[in-house]
Amino acid sequence: MRAEILFEARDSVGESVIWSGAEEALYWVDIGGKRIHRLEVASRRHDAWATPDFPTSIGMRKDGGFIVGLCQSVCFWRPGEAFETFAVPEPHLPDNRLNEGRVAPDGSFWVSSMQNNLNADGSPRDMDRQSGALYRIAPSGKIEQLTPNDYGITNTMGWTRDGYFLFADTLANEIYRFTYDRAANSLSDRRTIVKDFARGLPDGSCLDADDHLWNCRVVGGSAVAQFDKGGALLQLVELPVSWPTSCTFGGADLKTLFVTSARFTMTPDHLAAHPQEGSLLAVEGAGRGIPEPKFG
Fold first, then answer.
1. Closest CA to 107 of 267, 285, 295
2. DSSP string covering 177-192, please?
3. Which stretches of the chain are DSSP H helices?
4. The whole model's pTM is what?
5. What is the pLDDT of residue 49?
6. For residue 98, pLDDT beyond 90
7. Residues 278 and 261 sit within 8 Å (Cβ to Cβ)
8. C-alpha–C-alpha distance, residues 117 and 208, integer Å
9. Who's near 234: CB < 8 A, 6+ residues apart?
10. Alpha-carbon dihedral sign for residues 130, 91, 112, 121
């Protein structure tokens, strides 16, 4: 299994990559670069749109267009149009920002928060507390808080078909499994299934058709790790970038694993020697994914 650079995006923090089967294209955000990407895989046509604030996540809507997490608000957006505020999960915590976000299988949008680690210019800002939480936003706009504000850098969202939800805290180097009651929209029985894994730290993830978790190992991990839902390591895919950030399955029959990456905090000398940092990658032979749910 080999990873190849598909597009040299040079993202500050590429994140939240999703596959639009109808367009045969990938969408993802560059948080620090304040832009949203679109890439048609076959033709390599690339488009990008500037955002008014740090974009942190993106998902598709059933009615067309997208749902996008910005720094503090969740918005509706269509390419080339203005961002329309839909929900603000933490109006009482102005020093927090949103981070991971994903459309759930039931059509809701789940989004998580963290202490803001970005200055206005996208440069790193020190963190001194764990204040992140997880929220569910219904198509009606109703916001439900699913966890306390106890997490450092919230990452990874995956719903297994047998009733579990997978979540991660990058700073803690831990991946968690919750029992998810879909009828009650509640999480319980949190268990740590991956702890102190030696390669990097956990960032974004996706599930494959067998409910295995593909987790990007950021901060020097240079790999995507495949875990089963109990946390056992199945395989490790080596990457030509040191900070992989998020992944999704797409392409023909959803058999290509696409991976975003970051340049965040890297020195000019490192980037001069490793210009591929921040690229979008493609990995063949990793398995098969499932279609991305749509909001609504």
1. 295
2. EEEEETTTTEEEEEEE
3. 268-273
4. 0.96
5. 98
6. yes
7. yes
8. 31
9. 212, 226, 227, 228
10. negative
